[in-house]
Amino acid sequence: MKEQIVIKVTDREGVVHELEAPTDMGMNVMEVCKSYELPVEGTCGGMALCASCHCYINSDHELQEASEDEEDMLDQAFFVEDNSRLGCQIRITEAIEGLEVTLAPVSE
Amino acid sequence: MLKTDIIIIGAGPVGMFTVFEAGLLKLRCHLIDALPQVGGQLTEIYPKKPIYDIPGYPSILAGDLIKNLEEQIAPFKPTYTLGERVETIERTEEKMFTVQTNRGSVIQAPVIAIAGGLGCFEPRKPPLSNLSQFEDKGVDYIVRDPEKYRDKRIVIAGGGDSALDWTIFLSEVASEVSLIHRRSSFRGALDSVDKVMELAQQGKVNLITEAQVAELHGTDRLEHVGVKLKSKDIKLIDADYFIPLFGLSPKLGPIANWGLNINKNAIEVDTFDYSTNVVGIYAIGDINTYPGKLKLILSGFHEGTLMVQSAFKYIYPDQKLSFKYTTVVGVNGFKE
């Protein structure tokens, strides 16, 4: 099993960051972004309860479908598109090696 | 006007536990919170979620932790101002602050502890360029008085319980109610969802799903709401009021105006006693920052505990403070 994968995160200024993430720590995309100090709040701590890690998936990786909780939270987010997800609900596993995501805009 | 020893701004777990630690030193506390109930994000955002990192509890529901804290601090007779947001802090005497809320409550104390967590919970505002232009001129984020909407045309946006409940309620009051929602399914309580569907079939509610409000129009006040449909077409709806109901999210708010050193939306403190750059004002819990800060409830409990020791010495510089273990004498609450 691969112990490290790389994901590509485009921040709100359009800068692409290649982030290394361990697959053996039960991490998610929100936590990886935070550990690299990208501007992701992760207010609720990863419970799909705040939408501050809202992002768009740009690559065609097969991800686990969004749960009802995640969809419910996206209902309260803005700038939601068909490829919208909450970063905290995407687990770091070998299957998402090379995942490309863009951070969604934040509203005032 | 109320006077106390410590004004705690923020009635989340950290602010609440600080009442206990202050009480052991015979200091009285008054808690102020913008939310109408105690518990902060634990009761507002995730009351039913288990927390796993409270020492001594392998797992405890957030709501239960708050109930336990209420019981634990009750002997120290804390007083509360809930549903009000602190707007201003003024030093009115050398060792006295006067705090005023948005509803005009005034409280005085020599010490202030800001336990504001992530800030004040405020309604999420949809990103519409001219939204603020229509605030109080047709855009309301909270329904305070339903009678205001009698015989008016209302557009509600959102898919949660409050959007559904107000749609149902206002369908009896308003002349026309439209509900706009991003998806075709709803997350609200099942019977409210069924009721809204029924009202839609009866033509009492104009239900538009897989759509979002995209535009607001009007000259002096709101006249039309533009809804972007799945087809990307914009449908204009005549409206007297637009009520976006997208839940609450925390904002730093007035805290930024109190002359405190702020770093990335958090208040800088000295880890010796969690004091801020303003003598007499402390910051504890998620709202503060220092090298190595972790936003954990247990860290906030520790911070509040050390903070009240410093507050005691500040209020009573000539009195000797002797630390008492509760294991020896138990908890001696206040008689009144």
Structure description:
The complex is a heterodimer of chains A (108) and B (336). Chain A contains two helices and five strands; from the N terminus they run E-E-H-E-H-E-E. Chain A is α+β, with helices and mostly antiparallel strands and 108 residues long. Chain A has one domain (4-103): Ubiquitin-like (UB roll) (Roll), CATH 3.10.20. In chain A, strand 1 (4-10) and strand 2 form a beta hairpin. The longest helix of chain A is centred in the middle third of the chain and has 8 residues, at 68-75. The mean pLDDT of chain A is 92. Chain B folds into two domains: 2-122 and 249-329, FAD/NAD(P)-binding domain (3-Layer(bba) Sandwich); 132-246, 3-Layer(bba) Sandwich (FAD/NAD(P)-binding domain), CATH 3.50.50.60. In chain B, 22% of the residues lie in helices and 28% in strands. Chain B contains seven helices and 23 strands. Classes of the chains: A alpha+beta (108), B alpha/beta (336). Chain A binds chain B through residues 43-44, 47, 49-50, 52, 68, 71-72, 74-80, 105, 107-108, and chain B through 41, 45-46, 49, 118, 124-127, 158-160, 181-183, 185, 187, 212, 246-247, 249-250.
Arrangement of strands in the largest sheet of chain A = 2-1-5-3-4
Largest protein-protein interface: A-B, 19 and 22 residues
Return the domain count of chain A: 1
CATH C-level class of the largest domain in chain B is Alpha Beta
Task: Give Rg of chain B in angstroms.
Answer: 24 Å
Beta-strand percentage of chain A? 15-25%
Please list the strands of the largest sheet of chain B in the order they lie side by side.
6-3-2-10-22
Q: Report the major sheet of chain B.
A: 5 strands, parallel
Features:
heterodimer, A: 108 residues, alpha+beta, Ubiquitin-like (UB roll), five-stranded mixed beta sheet, 2 helices, 23% strand, globular, B: 336 residues, alpha/beta, FAD/NAD(P)-binding domain, 2 domains, five-stranded parallel beta sheet, four-stranded mixed beta sheet, 23 strands, 28% strand, elongated
